[in-house]
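Technical note accompanying the year-one report. For the benefit of new consortium partners, we illustrate the data format agreed upon in the data management plan: each record pairs a sequence with a structure-token string. No post-processing was applied to the example shown here.
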Amino acid sequence: MAETQNEIPQERTERNRRKTRIGVVVSDKADKTVTVQVERRFAHPLYGKQVAKTKKYQAHDEHNEFRVGDTVRMVETRPLSKMKRWRVAELIERPE
């Protein structure tokens, strides 16, 4: 099967689709690691009320540049340690 220049092989597109999460840094005490709290909202399955659940992720911060309170975007990556499977991709908002 001949590929045209506009076609991308299926296996390449699936591999590069990494999950992203937006959350708030709640701890920056560890070296090159920040704890990011991510909140997700959904409708309760029975009652329909909006429910918020939070989860904390350990994310890699190579240059120790993010501080508590920063809103950041994380991207999924290979396992970096026992708990770290995410790295911080960018700063979205910094409180004043």
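Partners are asked to follow this layout when depositing records. The mean pLDDT is 91.
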